[in-house]
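User: I'm designing a mutation panel for Chloride-dependent neutral and basic amino acid transporter B and want to avoid disrupting the core. Could you give me a predicted structure to guide residue selection? Please restate the sequence first so the numbering is unambiguous.

Assistant: Good idea. Sequence first, for numbering, then the predicted structure tokens:
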Amino acid sequence: MTELKREQWSSRLAFYFAAIGAAVGFGNVWRFPALSVTYGGGAFFIPYLLALFFIGIPILILEIGFGQFFQTGDVNVFGGFHPRMRGVGVASVAAGFMLVVYYSMLIAWVVHAFFDSFGSDDPWGHPDTNGTVAVEYFVGEIIGAKTLGDDGRPTRMVWANVGCAALVWTMCFLGTAFGVQWVGRITYFTMGLPIVLLFVFLIRGLTLEGYQDGIKEYIGVWDLSVLTEQGDVWSTAVSQIFFSIGVTFGIMTAFGSYCPRGDPVTINAFVIALSNSMFSFISGFAVFAALGHLSHTSGIPVTELPYAGFSLVFGTWPVVLGTLPGGEHWVRLLFFDLFLLGIDSAFAFNEAISTVILDTKFFQGTAKWKVHFGISFCGFLLSLMYATDAGLNFLDIIDFYINFVMLIVGFFECFAAGWVYGIEKTVAKCGAPAVGAYMTANFAGLFIACGIWFGVDEGAVWKGIIALLVWYNVFLGISVVLLQNFIKSSGEELSLSEGLWALTFENIFDLKERIRPVTQNIPGIWCILIKQFIPHILIILFINLAQSETDEGLPIFGNYGGYADKPYQVMGILTFVVVVFCFTLGFVLPQAYAPLALPPGHFALTPDGAGDEQPAEQEQPVKEVEEVEDTLNVEETKGEKLSEDNLSENDGQQGPTIEA
């Protein structure tokens, strides 16, 4: 017998630094504070915190927890729920790869700006009061958009950005090629230093005259009317949470797979999510303290200054820093800080992809550096599209359609865990008609309600709610009748209350209990949210986003930003279509992803027993396995079993053994 060993983080602190580094990125600095000002100041924290605790953290627990249980990446985690769900993992990793390709160019632009800050044409010391000159320089010179024609199509390659992209991908390769212990050590610096620099920028900003004006706009104003009058604030808050904590891209599943079995998943998820949110919150004070000073010296109100996105980090903020004593060094420090924030996230995306590849039978035993070299080389080649003078246009369009991808992948993940896991057992207990009626009650009514809210009678909130409640109760009643008929006809020794429990919550609570010895306790509210709340909310948010209109009254899906259909809208829509296709292919033809299946010796779930090792290439029949409380059985290839106690003796340092 040979041991199937899996690399692990050198310590929980290393895992925290790596995971927080993956979560914290550009959006914490240039997007979150701006959203607060745009959506009613402190009022934005209400939908943000609700999205964090009721959507973001539960999905984070799902990804870290099942990565830790299965000790593998996204594809086989969701394949562990059901072989037809492998496509969920493929879709999430595909989305992550598409995102890191353009994210790498964002980092490259930061590197380009850093090098330009040493030149004589440095625009950040310009006396321009609102950063307009600096922003024009960034768009025209660094991105290279000054040569774009009226049609907005690319005309040339910006070779400086090609070189910076090559540097970024080389750093990604060197940072991830030697295993997660190496990544963990690097992130002590690449995440630790930005935390220090954040407080440096904060303290310096609070010493500037007029800083109070910026802080007031950031959090001193509470316009609660936006919560009802600007409906997109809710989908924006969820989108920010998804982007910010790094869920739906396979990152946290991969990182969780390198944690020892037995780590406290719920605690880990809260530490990561709250640390990320705290970084965003403090960043807002640092940013708007500087903008308050600029407003004070220029006489321009804070809300009329560029305070979001590229205009902030390449315009107003570095312009403020450039006016300080030793200003050029402050500007360089800002760009270096942004580089560190970005490169951590790029490391994480690469790790998510490599984990899936290395956990297949074809690449088992392959040197990790070879896989990372392939990922980095392919990523660099694909990123060259963004190194053209139209790079910002390409980035903007793909970034917009990624919002649809995050919502749909988040739905797929929760649906796999909450509805697909154990469905054979539920059907056996309750009957297929009752299960189908219950699913209809939960999901079909949402489309009717959304049609009323966003289509037929926009703004008729109560009409949609009433329609939803009527539909739900009618089909819930139908499912109860069908359940009663099935119990009578099948001779099941099952009371109606037991049948209703099996129909509604038994599978997800069973799932929670089966992984508990490996993940420690996960609260029961997680089960309710994953099955009965989050999938429904994500459907509503997806439809809300999809039905949005441009200023010209056109559907935003297919007409975003006024970009030409070819190549921009086509590429954006293809981004979404590819992800949906990845899921659909696995659902309809599960054998299509057989090459990505777990090699023998890994963990898998069955509806009646968790922790059984299965040949992942085949769908497994439901097996009657004697349940042992608080024990996960790991079946060896010869039929032997190892209990969780056997594993814990090794302190989680290795997986089950497999036949030599």
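For picking mutation sites, this is relevant: The two ends are 4 Å apart (CA to CA). The chain has a mean pLDDT of 88.
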